[in-house]
Design brief:
The complex is a heterodimer of chains A (about 150) and B (about 100).
Chain A lengths: L7 H24 L8 H19 L1 H5 L4 H24 L13 H7 L5 H29 L5
Chain B lengths: L1 H19 L17 H12 L4 H9 L1 H34 L1
Helix pairs in contact in B: 2-3, 3-4
The chains are: A mainly alpha (about 150), B mainly alpha (about 100).
Chain lengths: ~150, ~100
């Protein structure tokens, strides 16, 4: 469906310049979700845009080989699993489902030198889960519709 | 008929514009919509969640069940596309092999 464009400049710009920048910006949006506008959904869409840019520039067949379809499905499941983990962990520690208050954060604050409250930690956990799910599902849908990532 | 529809639409626009004059300003703390839950959520974000982004606090903490459902919706959408498109592509291939 989408053939490879034989342009060295396009390949270089898409793969070496644009895609890493977009991915770094997406991770910034993810990790600063509590501080600035952003969050899991937005960061997932941004990183998926970078992966789809590489697919558009290099052609589906070549780019899709890097991320096999099974891995995408696993990533979506892992993202949902991380979200459920963020909900069940407080349940184990004696609070309600998705009530982040008892999540231990002292080790993280000592390790990273931050002053993160348990609730901010819980928000970060589920944002990572949402991020993985959104990236995997968006790229999976594109690959399936473009018909390039055969198993 | 067309003229009647235009007159009706003009009347509707006039009604909405006239009604919008009575709407409170955006982010007005005294507006009725901001009286019920907003002060409580703002206070809890400052005292318990302690993050500057009120939207993230509401989305991922106070309404995290809702966000869990949204994530399930996205996941289910991906699974549905996977099931529909994968089957429709595999059946002709198997026919071709036989």
């Amino acid at each position: 469906m989408n053939d490879r464009y034989d342009s060295v400049i396009l390949h270089f710009i898409a793969r070496v310049v644009m895609a890493p920048l977009i991915i770094v910006f997406g991770l910034y949006v993810l990790l600063h979700g509590e501080l600035s506008p952003g969050g899991g959904f937005q960061a997932g869409a941004i990183v998926a845009a970078a992966l789809l840019l590489v697919r558009l520039a290099l052609g589906n067949r070549q780019a899709a080989l890097r991320i096999p379809q099974g891995l995408l499905i696993w990533l979506a499941c892992i993202g949902l699993g991380i979200y459920m983990f963020g909900g069940i962990l407080p349940l184990i520690l004696g609070a309600n489902f998705l009530d982040y208050a008892p999540i231990p954060v002292e080790w993280y604050n000592q390790f990273a030198g931050e002053h993160r409250t348990p609730r901010a930690m819980g928000i970060l956990i589920i944002e990572v889960g949402v991020f993985l799910g959104v990236v995997a599902v968006l790229v999976l849908i594109y690959d399936l519709i473009a018909g390039s990532s055969r198993q | 008929m067309k003229l009647l529809m235009l007159a009706f639409l003009a009347g509707l626009v006039a009604l909405l514009v006239w009604a919008s004059a009575d709407l409170p300003d955006r982010a007005d703390p005294d507006a009725p919509a901001n009286q019920h839950l907003s002060p409580e959520l703002t206070r809890m974000t400052e005292s318990e969640v302690v993050i500057p982004n009120l939207v993230s606090a509401i989305l991922a903490d106070f309404r995290s069940y809702d966000t869990l459902g949204e994530t399930f919706v996205i996941f289910t959408a991906g699974l549905a596309v996977l099931l529909v498109l994968q089957r429709s592509r595999r059946v002709p291939e198997e026919d071709g092999d036989e």
